[in-house]
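Subgroup meeting minutes
Present: P.N., E.W., G.H.
Scribe: E.W.

1. P.N. recapped why we're keeping a running log of single-chain structure predictions: easier to compare across weeks, and new members can see raw inputs and outputs side by side.
2. G.H. added today's entry (290 aa).
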Amino acid sequence: MKRLVLFIATNIAVVVVLSITLRLLGVDRYLTAQGIDYGALLVFSAVVGFTGAIISLLLSKPMAKWTTRAQVIDGSESAETRWLVDTVRRLADRAGIRMPEVAIYDGAPNAFATGAFRNSALVAVSTGLLRSMNREEVEAVLGHEIAHVANGDMVTLTLIQGVVNTFVVFFARIVGHIVDKAVFRTERGVGPGFYITVIVCEIVFGLLASIIVMWFSRRREFRADRGSAELLGSPQPMIAALRRLGGIEQADLPESIRALGINDRPGWMALFSSHPPIEARIAALQQSRG
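Output recorded in log:
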């Protein structure tokens, strides 16, 4: 499963770092010295925004391995790992993708899939998930992750993230220009108020933009649930797996990849959740079955 904070946090960090770098090189000063050239600013924003998203995508697999300390397996370690690898291979063949890397990491029940390319992905499950579920339920979770890979969800989210990054960078500079002129009374070029405002706006707008990205992410989760049902020939195993997850304490993944795994935040925090409520996912699968 997938998305946010590796993605959102890395995106925000990359965008801010790129912005500071280009600022030091004088690109910002060129664009704003005599006012705002909106066409040039939009191109500049798209370059920075999509670069941040693409870098996040390329870093997703190594970052996931590093933050969870996941150990890649080949099936020779034990009978359990052999079953796990064989199951992933079988599901990948059904989905029409190359065999992903398979990994196990220590932790409470959770799982995720990530990677920049559908034919070189990573599927990882926790030791807690393997202990708390039977094989049919584990297979359903693996089918869900394989569906994410086959659907190209990381690439889709990258494109969406690139678009919202572009507007974050663009409007941060518009606001920075207005504040610098109206509040700090800078008459020529740009002053410190512009740079301070841009950095603050990039962070704030980036967090608000993540709501849009997370909405798309939740839509993709429903699709991955249906994908698991199609790969297994029935929605029942995925329904059983979701019910199991609803009755056990889920893992608290490292902040950098929390949205890659299962999460279900209550109240207004649900806006920042990459996954829909488990009850809604079960209802959608039951409706599709009917």
